[in-house]
Automatic annotation (TrEMBL):
Domain HTH luxR-type: 136-201
Gene Ontology MF term list: DNA binding
CDD domains: LuxR_C_like, REC_FixJ
Membrane-spanning residues: none
UniProt protein name: DNA-binding response regulator
Pfam families listed in its UniProt record: GerE, Response_reg
Lineage, opening ranks: Bacteria, Pseudomonadati, Pseudomonadota, Alphaproteobacteria, Hyphomicrobiales
Keyword Protein biosynthesis in record: no
Record's signal peptide: none
PTM annotation (4-aspartylphosphate): residues: 55
PANTHER family referenced in this protein's UniProt entry, alphabetically: DNA-BINDING TRANSCRIPTIONAL ACTIVATOR DEVR_DOSR
Organism: Bradyrhizobium icense
Length: 205
């Protein structure tokens, strides 16, 4: 039973696909192979988290264009690009578009396996980070307008009395808004609230 993660191999060379399938399956990865990037993209909506290992030069959609499309779709997949001799400029462009790494052919089997393991760990950490940011942003979005104003006042260093004066309401009312806001933000302290607001990009310039 595969335990190391999902790997999606994209290469128009049948012999390379078969070789990589055998190697990665033997290394306990769950492997799917595709002869074109388009066929992979056709299944993207049902694709589970994993690592894409794609050749950079392919007919139709090449590795660089594949990365551009994955970026647009915001797919949380690690991508390793395989390159031939002389394709380093393309590989550099691929990394600028979000590829985790690139590997020049021919390569040692153990190097690819280690690279996939590292790419999966990095992508998992990134996916958790993104999920946490989205969760915090959702907490901010759930605040009422007044609760949002109180939060912005607090992280700007204002006291309850100062916030109350700004909005011409009583400090006691601000305390109620503050308590509700802290509950919705799941913040136990002012310092934690500041960190959450920064993470969500909710602080004013």
């Amino acid at each position: 039973m595969a335990t190391r993660g999902n790997v999606y191999v994209i290469d128009d060379d049948e012999a390379m696909r078969d070789s990589l399938h055998f190697l990665l399956d033997s290394a306990d990865f769950e492997v799917s192979v595709f002869e074109t990037a388009q066929k992979f993209l056709d299944h993207l909506s049902t694709t589970e988290f994993g690592c894409v290992v794609s050749d950079v030069r392919m007919p139709g959609i090449d590795g660089v264009e594949l990365l551009k499309r994955l970026k647009v779709s915001r797919a949380s997949l690690a991508v390793i690009i395989m390159t031939g001799h002389g394709d380093v400029p393309l590989a550099v462009e691929a990394m600028k578009l979000g590829a985790v790494d690139f590997l020049e052919k021919p390569f040692e089997d153990c190097r690819l396996v280690a690279m996939i393991d590292a790419a999966l760990r990095q992508a998992e950490a990134g996916a958790r980070d993104e999920a946490m940011t989205q969760d915090i942003a959702a907490r901010v979005a759930a605040l009422s307008q007044r609760e949002r104003q109180v939060m912005e006042g607090l992280v700007a260093g204002l006291s309850n009395k100062m916030i109350a004066r700004d909005y011409n309401i009583s400090p006691r009312t601000i305390e109620v808004y503050r308590a509700n806001m802290m509950t919705k933000m799941q913040a136990s302290s002012l310092s934690e609230l500041v960190r959450l607001a920064m993470r969500a990009g909710a602080l004013k310039d």
